[in-house]
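The following block was generated as part of the benchmark described in Methods. Ligand: FE3-S4 cluster.
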Amino acid sequence: MLGGEYGPAVAKSIELLVAVGKIFEAERLIPIESAHVSGVSYKNLGDAGLEFLEEQADLGAKVRVKTTLNPAGMDLDRWMDLGVPEDFAVKQMRVIKAFKNIGIEATCTCTPYLIGHVPRFGSQIAWAESSAIAYSNSVIGARTNRESGPTTIASAITGRTPLCGYRLDENRAPQKIVIVNAKLKTPFEYSALGYLVGEKVGSAVPYFKGIFHPDLESLKALGAALATSGGIALYHIEGITPETLKFDDEKLKGLDKIGVDEKDLREASIRLSSEVKDPIICLGCPHCSLKELKHYAKILKDKRLRRRLIAFTSRGVYDQAEKEGCIKDIEHAGGRVFRDTCMVVAPLKEMGWREISTNSFKAAHYASSMGIATYLSAAEHVLREASA
Ligand code: F3S
């Protein structure tokens, strides 16, 4: 590959991976089974990123493994309804075309594991998108580092990645014990827990005790928040996530312990919330699952919203929700469900958004940093409060 036998795109990609491997003292490159690419919004890529992708496609780059795509900066069909400016939309469509030409599936979601891209336990993958990384490493037990957009594309094109970091057994062991003294019920509470623990442990691997029966939605919220305030790519929950069986009391002995209670969780949401007057309710960070859309539809059935509600999901989940009648119920109440994008990667300022209300600490963190006033609350609470 380095010698150019497989073409210039492969040579460039493997050069990058060899350089990364040297930095992290990887012993060798290994094959991967799948890739998930982030950095899809034109808002983040800009013209330089767009040109890089078009150049790769022109050089004949093609992925060698199943590769999916993170959210783009807009709903690819209904961008006008979302208020996305036309010049942005034109560039965004060029980005998507370049990715498709490389052979990447334009799934445009941060929850590829909800639409059939589910790696095997123990498989080596190259995924970007911090929330998807945390989910695949922790809940599925696949192995990925926190890949960047360029290294993921390079891995997809070569089918290789350096053997280092979370790919190795020794780096997957717990480093801190987190004792949860709170009864967690909603994904909102798991999001608050993740945000707090991320702040406290940085990029260490936390081992949670005291969490019982979390659903998939809670685990995706937990991982997204852990990766936002900290740099956490992997967590373990006693009795829940698959790798905890390897860690008996002997292995956990001597690790630092931190405790989190209900008061800590309440304080975290107050601390991150700002005052809002008429926020747009934004749900779906990470992208909504079918269960979440069904839940929101049930709350809103035969009601009328007093505020604008926008929920974000993938096309795969949207199609299922449409068949089950959830989209109709949400829209009947005055809400909208968009695909392919989210409240962080869409060009919110250019769309005229000033205030949002959300149940996601990840969304609140990034929206606040963009100067958008953000109020945090459980989805059930904001929807009931805003509908009659
Ligand atoms: Fe997904 Fe966008 Fe949140 S990519 S995790 S919905 S910031």
